[in-house]
Amino acid sequence: xxxxxxxxxxxxxxxxxxxxxxxxxxxxxxxxxxxxxxxxxxxxxxxxxxxxxxxxxxxxxxxxxxxxxxxxxxxxxxxxxxxxxxxxxxxxxxxxxxxxxxxxxxxxxxxxxxxxxxxxxxxxxxxxxxxxxxxxxxxxxxxxxxxxxxxxxxxxxxxxxxxxxxxxxxxxxxxxxxxxxxxxxxxxxxxxxxxxxxxxxxxxxxxxxxxxxxxxxxxxxxxxxxxxxxxxxxxxxxxxxxxxxxxxxxxxxxxxxxxxxxxxxxxxxxxxxxxxxxxxxxxxxxxxxxxxxxxxxxxxxxxxxxxxxxxxxxxxxxxxxxxxxxxxxxxxxxxxxxxxxxxxxxxxxxxxxxxxxxxxxxxxxxxxxxxxxxxxxxxxxxxxxxxxxxxxxxxxxxxxxxxxxxxxxxxxxxxxxxxxxxxxxxxxxxxxxxxxxxxxxxxxxxxxxxxxx
Length: 453
Hints:
Elements: H1 10-41, H2 51-65, H3 70-84, H4 91-108, H5 117-136, H6 146-180, H7 193-217, E1 224-228, E2 234-236, E3 246-252, E4 255-263, H8 264-269, E5 279-284, E6 289-293, H9 294-299, E7 304-308, E8 315-319, E9 331-337, E10 343-346, E11 349-352, E12 363-368, E13 373-380, H10 381-386, E14 396-401, E15 406-410, H11 411-416, E16 420-427, E17 430-437, E18 442-444, E19 447-452
Parallel strand pairs: 1-9, 10-19
Antiparallel strand pairs: 1-2, 3-4, 4-7, 5-6, 5-9, 7-8, 10-11, 12-13, 13-16, 14-15, 14-19, 16-17, 17-18
Helix pairs in contact: 1-2, 1-3, 2-3, 2-4, 2-5, 2-6, 3-4, 4-5, 4-7, 5-6
């Protein structure tokens, strides 16, 4: 009996899985590098210089298997790896990777001769640029058409990155591997027309399903609840409140952009916040929550609540915070918080940990800090301790909780493992601090004191 041949061999599937795993893990560190360049250079598109490195793995999958559809399948797998390893974008990162994989496969289709750098460069370029447009579907809309030129500029930077780092570099790596004999050169194997369309249609339907779910999950409500440490909580509704829309202009990514919305300062004034409140949190319909300090609220006049749509389709987006993590889409609740202090007792001094000063160094993970398993942001404990003058002979760090419980970590543990973090726990309008690890291990919740000794 003749053995049935499958289009994707076991070798192909293993290659795609391995590349997806490598790409998914590498993307986390590539994001760190991109953020570093953004903080140093500060002009439009600097975070996208490495966009092609995210797509390189999808291009390599197509080049190594020489089979259509390999980019899409690897994109699905890579997105799943990033999703389940705690990427801050959540399900959106899966959509980004699926679309990128589709673009790699579709970018190769017009070329009859594919053993050339040009098809790889074109496919890598359009796949890298696609992430800009996918993310733009879920962000606040600028108030002027000129800003769309900035979006196009950033997409161009991503396209060039894809041409260089995904296309040309990918083709060079494949050529080197073949010349060295590490992988065998094989003929391209076109997939059957019906099978190809089924594969592409399946990927498009999956992308559409994720897009639809995200749009619903990130939508808002007709009003936003203003609550927490306030004397007069109320529901803010755009167009029905006495506040008028305002236009703000500020520098974003090195260029001037403008948005229209309602002043956050004036919205909160109507609720009469507690003068001792020190944080404001923004909660989205999908559960994502982030914060700004009361100090930023008082000095940052660019903070606005943008309204899009009407009635049941109305969505509120937070625009203007200094940290991009606080640009929350689909806001349904704004909490004014009077948070307790986290004290760092050092050499007889009491220093207060300022959570708002560490947002750029934070990363997220899922852990149970007493409110069920949720995703929280945390800053490496080592960085916080290095920012103060510590005693030269201290050997351990002691943590004390609200209830008097303690946990102790050695200085060797803290200095060698950046996974040990101070997590900011935002839940039901409160802010507490938990010492935990990025792998999910909780050392001590509701920490009030940190004492190096």
